Amino acid sequence: MTSPVAGVPASFVIPDILSSWPFQRVDNPALALVQSSHRKWFQSLKTNAKYQKTFEGCNAPLLCSIAYPFAPASHVRIGADLLLLEFLIDDIADHLSPGEASRFAGVIRDVLKNPGTKRPDGEDTIGAIVQDFWLRASSEASHTFIWKLRKELIGYVDAICQEGVDRDSGQARDLDSYMQLRKTAIGVLPAISVCLHNIDIPRDVLLDPKILELETLAGRMAFLTNDMTSYNVEQARGDDLLNSVALLIRTEKMPVQDAFDAVADKFRIYTHEFLAIMRTLPLDSDPSLKAYVHCMGYWVTAAHEWAFEVGRYRLNSAARSGGRVFLLPKKIKDEA
């Protein structure tokens, strides 16, 4: 962080972390089509204002057009709808007590386990939204997709609820336990399952330690870039308990810029580990596995690129290319 000058806010630079990453950005040409159908689907759900605010702020089709650059429009659409669900779940769970979050998660688990059951009157709208998504996404999908997405979505919901418990109690995790939780709570593992929609990969292959480690590394890289791009708005509203940049500032007494640089260094270590493992896999002889592994890589790219093009984190293209980002003033949480 630069030394404060009278009247000038402190600032930081988001490090360049993708310069040696081979999965460079490619935009799926189906973006406009997906944006239109995605919006129509959301509007058909007749949600309330809090859901509408999340929808307008996340632009899930843009994120998914970068994450699935070579996928057909139908798959990008499934990904966009899934990402919106994750944003809704995350944003709503942030404001729930542990007991409320547990009941909220129970609704989602019940939908995933009993998708054909009519939802009870008076249930939170999220139940009907998840059910509508699941019935459409699982139609004509591979067995691998159904098994994997259900498993990862339940894991995601559980992790989000645990984050809520941490926030409510004020518990500050150490870096290791934080990273274990966040690799699931960032929501990348359900998202990369979309790549399996029309692919059947044997379960023992997906459970191979190397594939599981690649998933872990992709999840870690995704949440580290998210921590860097979201830090400013989170520190402004006092909601940075679960952010690795803020964690290093608190526990290691690092200046802001040093914390950003340390997180970027950790990201680069994971980049090296991911690529090293990837090179040991027989991807050229297994197109399905290659598609899945490359999907992980493009998701890391998407998580970073998207953050500079939506209003959610109050960034711009200059910040992506090394421009200074000025710290936002502290605000009451509901105002941020």
What this model shows, in words?
Keywords: Lyase, Magnesium, Metal-binding. Pfam families: Terpene_syn_C_2. Its EC number is 4.2.3.-. The protein has 336 residues and is mostly helical. It has one domain: Farnesyl Diphosphate Synthase, CATH 1.10.600.10. The protein has 15 helices and two strands. The chain has helices at residues 31-44, 49-58, 60-67, 73-93, 98-113, 125-137, 143-169, 175-185, 188-193, 203-206, 209-236, 244-251, 256-278, 287-307, 317-320; strands at residues 11-12, 325-326. Strands 1-2 form a two-stranded antiparallel ribbon. Helix 12 crosses helix 13 (256-278). The longest helix has 28 residues, at 209-236. The chain is globular and about 50 Å long.
